[in-house]
Amino acid sequence: MEETISLQDLFKTLKKRALLIIAAMILAVTIAGIISYFFLTPIYQTSTQILVNQQKAPAQQQDYNSQDIQTNLQLINTYNVIIKSPAILSKVIQKLDLDTTPAALTGNITVESAENSQVVSITVQDPEAFRAVDIANTTAEVFQQEIKKLMSVDNVNVLSPAVLTENPAPVKPDPMLNMAIGAVIGLMLGVGIAFLLEYLDTTIKNEQDIEDILQLPIIGLISPIPEGTKVSTANMIQSRRKRV
């Protein structure tokens, strides 16, 4: 016989194991909070902006047209790669005396630009807020100097340097978000464990379980005797004799 589970049975299982589900959710939230506040290293983020714009002499300003802008936009994709290249980052490491490698530093730097924009943002993440600011500003400065040698152009200017705020806030970890994720995971685990325990519980609880196991219809039930009622076997036999 194929076993089917009704929606009512599901709700009964959830209600029966409600304490287990709540405990699993609370435990997951607690673990996520402890890890977020005490074990994960705070990461700070800052960014600097550079402007890609060909500098021209005053007498040539009238010749600056949309074609020059388009040329600068085409160069930005190349610049995005050069900024994160060892040619730039090795000099940044040397200037700041960082204990890292260009390959490792690349993972902490993000270079991006808006579509059809001549502004390039250099975003740096680091466990120390002041060091993130230094890396961002130094990277922009080194790139501005080295691009003249690498491509024989002078069209990069620092538009907005990174600034160290008074009370910088880390961008990650986000304890509240981690705890919310922990609550969802704990809830899912709790529900899963509840249904697993219910599935592994093979004890007979009611007449429906007997019918499912024996695959025979139930033709009668013995009603429970109230707890306060006491009938002796002798009294039952004597009562039957009188009836006879």
TrEMBL record:
* Entry's localization field: Cell membrane
Family (UniProt): Belongs to the CpsC/CapA family.
Q: What cellular-component terms does GO give this entry?
A: plasma membrane
Q: Please provide an example of a Pfam family that matches this protein in its UniProt record.
A: Wzz
Q: Which intervals hold domain Polysaccharide chain length determinant N-terminal? A: 3-96
Q: How does it sit in the membrane?
A: Multi-pass membrane protein
**One term of GO molecular function:** protein tyrosine kinase activity
Residue span(s) of domain Tyrosine-protein kinase G-rich: 144-196
Quote the protein name from its UniProt record. Capsular polysaccharide biosynthesis protein
**InterPro entries, sorted:** Bact_polysacc_biosynth/exp (IPR050445), GNVR (IPR032807), LPS_length_determ_N (IPR003856)
Regions crossing the membrane: 18-40, 176-197
**The entry's keywords:** Cell membrane, Membrane, Transmembrane, Transmembrane helix
